[in-house]
Amino acid sequence: MPGADELDIDHVAALARLALTPEEKSNFSRQLGGVLQHIEQLRKVDVTGVEPTAHAFPVVNVWADDVARPGLTTAAALRNAPAQRQNLVVVPKVVE
Amino acid sequence: MNYEAVIGLEVHVQIKTRSKMFTRVASGYGHEPNTLTDPVVLALPGVLPVMNKAALDAVIKAGLMLGCEIAPVCKWDRKQYFYPDSPKNYQISQYDQPICLGGAVEIELPGSARNVMGEHKSIPLTRIHLEEDVGKLNHGATDSLIDFNRAGTPLMEIVSEPALRSADEAFAYLTALRAIMVQGGISDCDMEKGQLRCDANISIRPVGQTTLGTKVELKNLNSISFVRDGIAHEIKRQMAVLARGGTIVQETRDYDGQTGASQSLRSKEMAHDYRYFPDPDLMPVQVDQAWKERLRAGCPELPFDRQRRYFTDFQLPYTLTSVLVWDRALAEYFEAAACAAGNDKAQAVGNWIVNDLLRELGQAGLALADSKVRPEQLAELVRLVDTGVLLTGAAKEVFVEMFATGEAPAAVARRRGLEAAPTDAGALEQWCREAIAGNDKARAEFKSGKDSAINAFKGPVMKAAKGKADPKAVDATLRRLLAGD
Amino acid sequence: MAAEIHYQTIATLAARLAAGELSAVELMQAVIDRTRAVDDRVRAFNSRDEADALAQAAASDARRSAGEAMGPLDGIPVALKDVIAVEGQPLTASSRMLADFVSPYDATVVKKLRQAGAVLWGRLNLDEFAMGSSTENSAFGATHNPWDLSRVPGGSSGGSAAALAAGEAIATLGSDTGGSIRQPAAFCGVVGLKPSYGLVSRYGLIAFASSLDQVGPFTRTVEDAAMLLQVLAGHDPLDSTSFTAEIPDYRAAVCAGPRSRRLGIPKEYFGAGLDPEVAAAVRAAIAFYAAQGWEIQEVSLPHTEFCLDTYYIIATAEASSNLARYDGIRYGHRSQSAGDVTELYEKSRAEGFGAEVKRRIILGTYVLSSGYYDAYYRRAQQVRTLIRSDFLRAYEQVDALLTPTSPMPAFRHGEKADPLAMYLCDIYTIGVNLAGLPAISIPGGFTQAGLPIGLQLIGRPFREAELLATARNYEQAHDWHQRRPNL
Question: Are residues C67 and C175 in the same domain?
Answer without folding.
Answer: yes
